[in-house]
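Repro case for the chain-ordering regression, as requested:
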Amino acid sequence: MKLTFTAFAAATLMATAPAMADLVVPNLSYRTGAYGANGTQYADGFNDYFTLLNERDGGIGGEKIKVPECETAYNTEKGVECYEATKDTGALVYNPLSTGITYQLIPKVAVDKKVLYTPGYGRTSAKNGKVFEWVFNAPANYWDGASVAIKYLLDQNGGDLNGKKIALVYHNSAYGKEPVRTLQDLAEKHGFTLSELPVDAPGQEQKSQWLQIRREQPDYVIMWGWGVMNQVAIQEAANIRFPMENFIGIWWSGSEVDVVPVGAKANGYKALTFHGVGQDYPVYDDLQEYVIEPGKASQGGEHVGSVLYSRGMYAALVISEAIRKAQEIAGVSAISPEQLREGFEQLDITPERLEELGLPDFGPEIKLSCDNHGGSGMARMQQWDAEGGKWSLISEFTEPDQEILAPLIAEDSDAYAKEAGITPRDC
Amino acid sequence: MLYREAGDFKTSYRADGQTFPIRLDRWAYYAAIAVAFLIVPFIINDYWASAVFVPFLIYAIAALGLNILTGYAGQVSLGTGGFMAVGAYAVYKLMTAFPEISIVIHILLAGGITAIVGMLFGLPSLRIKGFYLAVATLAAQFFLVWLFNKVPWFYNYSASGQINAPERTILGFAVSGPAASASTKYLVCLVFAFVLAWVARNLTRGTSGRKWMAIRDMDIAAEIIGVNPLAAKLSAFAVSSFFVGIAGALLFSVYLGAAEVGEAFGINKSFLVLFMIIIGGLGSIFGSFAGAAFMVLMPVLLKNLLVGGFGWPTDLAAHIELMIVGALIVFFLIAEPHGLARLWALTKEKLRLWPFPH
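-- result from build under test --
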């Protein structure tokens, strides 16, 4: 039985192996599981932007873009399977939207020569392009986020956080643990006390953490959550009547699906973001005309304009700009992953360019180089308006505190280089 | 007609007691081993290794381990994920602390460490039985995951709590790390699976296996005829955990390359391995392999068929896949409550009589 089974598997696989063609940008998405509600929106935005380029401009530089989708369910084993299944189909770049899968792919992409683009997630120290040649995490990473959040709080308190109490509620995984060390260093620098409250995945059970918050009465709560954990945390905060305006989420904890279930009580909740919100950008007219009206939107287009949709779209935009740059440098339109890597390293998305693309002031300027794969790390704050049912931006793009971050990044990437036996490049 | 015992004369006790008494079975077994060792390594590619063969072999080892404990010795365990984590973290600490020593030794040592931890958590089995023991092992699962998350020493103080397998070689071939080739990874897992299955088979049909089964069938009666329950139960926990620890070590170092304890070794893993042995067949070596094959291959096959073959949206396919796998599990268990191994045994019995069943 096993033999026929294997033979059958072989037959189906042979029959379904995709042909080499076009520019292939696999979308390792998750639309099922505990994080499916968030993953779906991101995947839709990612797909739709490439559909727009294909429909409106005939692809990039005359080459159509193909976006085969593969379901990972936020599971590292399925993520590996998806990567292996797509890597021989001419794939250029991966964006798995999972810190766990990213950690797994970082060593693999260096061997297979594929670009790994992890905007706003993944391994923070991948910013150091000398060590992480194939990984890019512009425009911002977790440590940038932690630092910008503290900067915002400094602003709110007249530049002094001495004696304040800040609690960090985080997803007890690689993702959630990322900011801990940065926040500890920042606590030392600015004199606030930090209490760390891990929440085990998927995060439906947070009663004890919020009981502790209620007892300790911190001045601010910062959250690193994802999926169902966000909704539960915001609900619990509302239950203990924690003032929402003192509750700040990372960008992955600041989308509509996180706050809508809590209703009016979520009003005033704040979250970081590294891009604009809402549909007030010219690109949405094009999306409407070329993608949504002809019925080509991913999964029916029900999430167009949401925070995570915008983020998926933004990731696709950065990738497409890098492809464009790579085509420019290489002088050919059908580029290889190596050429795309060059394109990423010389990427320069100016505010003018963003305006041309129909997204004025949507994201920070992204200028990458051989040693800086993470950009400026600028982020801004958004706040939820429960009555209007929308997010609004409440601060300008802010630079993180590089004085704290740079040594941490150097330390962590050096540790990785040593562990993996990499000699850092000269830049 | 072809598949029969007639004409296959046994002239020694040794021949009579062999694992495959029927000639055709023996040939099939040798053929399968030959294909696995001599043909597959040459044709395997990264996708087949990472999506199918390597996870299948690793889960087969874990299922063998759990089958020894649950299937043969009758001690229900829900701690498999936790014990796999012990294997994974043990091999990580050994790999990073003693890089000059062969990874094979590290994997075996990781199994040994897991065996000790398994015996420790097996101690309550002397007092509690059945579902109550399941709860005690469930505590082991949660405790171990918590421990590896909480104590930074286990993950060498890395910022994210992730553990990454550095590159290690056997005879000059990379086994772990990104440079490891598909066939090396496959062969390493195959050798471990083959040797461990052979060990398991010979343990379970010898004295220790008989003791385990006596304990499983009725512990008081076993005690009266002279089986020491302390030794029998703890040895079952030790051997089982040794297998499970090796599976965890391989899962982390050879297959995944990076792992995070809550995600890779959570309670889901314990259930997955438990389902494997229930579907495959409790108390059967073949069943461990069949169950692992079913649980690993079925989702991959369905995914390729539905998304690749029919072009369905990935989320719809993922949901349908869950439903189909679930329905198949229910169907198989209704059709044959003793699992695939029993189904296989029945088929063979019918084949012996075919085409004259009376």
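Ordering looks correct now. Chain B touches chain A through 50 residues (CB under 8 Å).
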